[in-house]
Structures are given as C-alpha cells and as structure tokens.
Amino acid sequence: MSYSIIQKSQLEGAHRLDAEYYQPEFLDAMKKLSKASTIAELTSDVRYGLYLEPNYLERGVDFIRAMNLFDYDISGEILKIDGAKVPLEYKLEAGDCLITRSGANTGAASVIYPRLRGATFGSYTIRVRFNKINPFFAGLFLNTKYGIFQTLRLQTGMAQPNLNIPNIEQIKIPIFIENEQKKIEQICLEIQNQKENAKKFYAQAEQLLLHELGLENFSAKGGSPPSPGFGRAGASGGETENELYTVVNFSDVKSAERMDAEFFGGRCEKVMKKCRAHSPEKLGEIATLKKGIEPGSEAYREGGKLFVRVSNLSKEGLTDNNQQFLSEKMYDEFKKDYQPKLGEILLSKDATPGIAYVVKEPIDGVTSGGIVKVKLKEQIDPEYVALCINSIVGQSQVERDAGGSIIKHWKPEQIKNLLIPILPVATQKKIADLVRESHAARKKAKELLEEAKRKVEEMIENF
Asked: N or C: which end of the chain has fewer CB within 10 A?
C-alpha cells in the first residue's frame, strides 16, 4: 500500500484533499523542485488557443491541434486555415511552447521550431511564451519525469482530464546557468534536424515510387503527392481534375455489392491503370495474413505485456497512446500466433485502416483484432510493400474498399485483394533503403531525446 501523511498546514492552498494530488512520488519530486520558479514567473504570455469553426483549406496558415502534440513532437496531419482570421497575438514564434490542455494526451508539450513560425494553435492547447528561461530547455523539462509528474498532479476531471492556465502557471521549472541550458538547446535542435531528415528520406522514397509508376503528377489539388489519408480531388497526367461523376455499368455495381460514390469515385481506377503496367500482385498471393485477437476490455491490465491496438500504430512505429496491457498468462496463451516478428508488416484494418509498419525491433506483446500481421512469402522487401500501402497506391484502394459510416472497417478479403505493383528488385531496394534511412534518423532523434531528458533529470537530482 502506498500512502502519504499530510499536515493541514501543508495543503499549500491547493484546496484539494484527493489522494492523487498527494502521491508520494509527486511529493518527492516537489521537494527536489522547492527552489525552482513557477511558469507564471518565467513567462511573458500564457493563453488558450483559438476556437474556430472547421473550415480547413488546401493552402493557408498551419493550425496545430491537441492531437498534433505528442512526446516532444508536433506531427500528424496539420490542417490549414485562413490566415486572415488569425489575430497577431495568436501567431506562433520559434521557441513558443504548446501544451495539450485536454484529451488522451493531456499535458503533452512541444516547442515550436522555425519551420512552424507563423502557425496558430487550437482551443485544446495552451501557448506558453517563456522570456526568463531558455524555451527549449523549459519545453524539454516538461517532458522529463519532473515535468510529467506536475502535469499529472495538476490535472482535474475524472472522465476527461483537463489542465487550465492557473494549473499550468503553478508548474515549477528549475533555472540552471545559461551555458547548461544552451547545451540542452543544442541537443533539441539536433533532435529536430534528425526528424527533418526522417521526413526528407521518406518523401524521397515516396517520390521515387510514384515516379517509377508514372504517378508523380497525381496530386492533391495544388500540392505534392498526397500522403496516407489523402481525400481530395486529384488528377493523373493530363486527365481532368475535380471530376464530379463517374459512369459505371450496373454489372459492376452488382459485382461490388455497393453503389456509393466513394467506391466508384474514379481516383482509385486512375491509380490502378498506372499500377497494372507493373505486374501488380494481390497482397494475399504474396503474403500470409493473420488477424489479431479480441480479448475484450475486461482483459486489460495496468501493466503486463503490450496489447498493440490500432491507436498505437503509425507508419513510423508504435506509440504508447492510450496503451493497454494483458496479463502474463494471456500473453503466454496467445504469443505463438499473435506476437509480431521482425520483418512482418503490421497493417490496420479498422478505425483508421491502411496504416502499415514493418517491425524492426522485438515487440513483447500481441496484436489486437484491428491489426493484421502480414508475412511476405517471396523475396519482396517488406519496407517497399509497406511504403506502397502507405502511399496513394494503397490508400486509394483503402478509401475505395473500406466501409462504415462512423468506424471504418476494411474486410480481410479486401485486404487480400490489395494490389501491390512489383517494380524491379533494384528499384525496390533503392526505395526500401531510403525508408530505412528515414527510420534510422527517427530512431536517432528518439535516442537524443532520451539522452537530453536523462541529462536534465540528473541536473535536477543535484539541484
């Protein structure tokens, strides 16, 4: 049993008596930060983000939402809004820190780097502008255990955790000599450099794939070739953009057992015409597929072995977003058939179908029913196949096939029929090598982040 004994005089004026606030590890952390300054003392401005009606554009100002903040990073699909609607005081500057105020990743914090200067931020985030401490050091501190302890401690709400500005302003951050802060800033800049390299190599791999397939001009309106999740009108070569109708035969409708516009939208067929020139193979013919298990939420545990769900899967790897665990006993029962192996592709089939990731490191866990394990039979590079699935080649087929008005479902038979263009082995290798360079850069960024957090924590131990 874990407990704390608190005197009435020690209630700190917090007006709270709940056990969560006075957990022993929180109190121990606060003792180490007793000489630190509060965010209120270190900033020139702390404010909530903009509340705007959804009116997203192809071009405009980047609009960063709570879902874009995760593990000292700003990632995912960043939407764009009309810059004329953004007041000057809501435009982000390099060094600004964004903190998620509500949702599954409440307390997630990241610093704005130069490439996002001029962007704005949504109402579920809080912008913190530091002026008496190095902002990169401060932002990184919020991602150490000492920063996370405080955001966890100060959260309110049961069903929906929440942080407000008065909470945020209470967070304590230690101030070290400028030189020590600068060293952490340099690591942070290198972390960002490696992340940019990762994006660059992946983009080069995707561009090479599309070039070889003759799809380099098949793009989202006014942009570059779309990444997973594209959903706007496009054109291929000299074909007309923004076609609003498609003529199909009744026999095709009867065969597909569908008559919705999404299925017969035309984009997928244009992509497939290009792919058919490269001897495409059905995924079910070049690989074995195995759907994961569904033990039910009652099987979830606080700790144990990983239960990999769709929410934990991205094309870059696994995240701990709302991570769940299974007991050792259940893991032992299912690991033979459902534990991912090195070189296998994890492919999502539900909710956000079509996310593909090649397993690169041992995973001590099993996959959920929303994920399919794909093991290639032939000598086809799995990184090449995963890129095909994550690119317009796979995503156009997913958008055509996946059904469900609220939660999308991609049926196993449809996954088996997914067409993969087979390029020459040498070309596959070039593409796969670029993807591997991308993952290596991302791994380096992660290692640097852990190194920086460890250094800051060691500094605090001696503070």
From this structure: N
